[in-house]
Amino acid sequence: xxxxxxxxxxxxxxxxxxxxxxxxxxxxDKTLFTYDIVYTEIRGHAAEIARASIEEQIAILVxxxxxxxxxxxxxxxxxxxxxxAIIPCGSGNGIARHFNIPLDLKKAIQLINSQSxxxxxxxxxxxxxxxxxxxFGYDALIAHxxxxxxxxxxxxxAKLVLKQLKNFNPIEVECLESGKKWENIFFCSVANTSQFGxxxxxxxxxxxxxxxxxxxxxxxxSFFQFAGLLYKSYFGDVRKSKHTETISSANFHFRLNTTLxxxxxxxxxxxxxxxxxxxxxxxxxxxAK
Length: 289
Hints:
By secondary structure, the protein is of the alpha+beta class. Helix content is about 25%, strand content about 35%. The chain contains 8 helices and 15 strands. Strands 5, 6, 7, 8, 9, 10, 11, 12, 13, 14 and 15 form an 11-stranded antiparallel β-sheet that branches. α1 (about 20-25) runs parallel beside α5 and α6 packs across α7 (about 155-165). The radius of gyration is 19 Å and the shape is globular.
């Protein structure tokens, strides 16, 4: 019998994870699995649990949380024999949505029962690892601000996005291979998956299984142009906007004039303005449809 370990982030998302222990007991197939549940206590604890789980030869590690918790755990599991499963309980759940993992808790548990797996690429940014996106500029600013918001969820995030829009100072990006420079940039992101979350697809051409990443450059828009970008990212193809440029490659090397950054929504400050991005192809096994 395979052993499944559930890692629950008690502060992610909007509270539905509190129902989870009872749903696990009810819907996890006990003819296939034994299980235990571990709660994270501080940022970084999920990574410690993941390292211990590798040593214990746990078969499936289930992250109950948002993109940050997924990315923190995936970074440890790269190249290991453990399969990662996801029960999305974040604010946007961009990684789970990309892989068509149900947002409904019961259905997400039942997907684990199916043991349907794919092997995905992972990205690295200098000395850090990302599953979905890393970003610099406005999305990084919002990640830093949102990290200090007590009330989580989509509407808290949306309110913050609009509030910070007016006074944001654009950044500059320089490609170190070609020498090309971009000025007046709203944000610069590198994508392994297609969306930031809540079905806003900033990189619809990203698949996480093709051995490539996408560099997305977005010029600073006016308020109405920003609304148009949001509309295209949700209902259409944001790549058709004159404000965006997308480049696909297995690696990128560029220079920035900002220290604000995020990895899958978790904010941090850069210690260098030189960024090296690489794709690690087919390096993590996950349960997905």
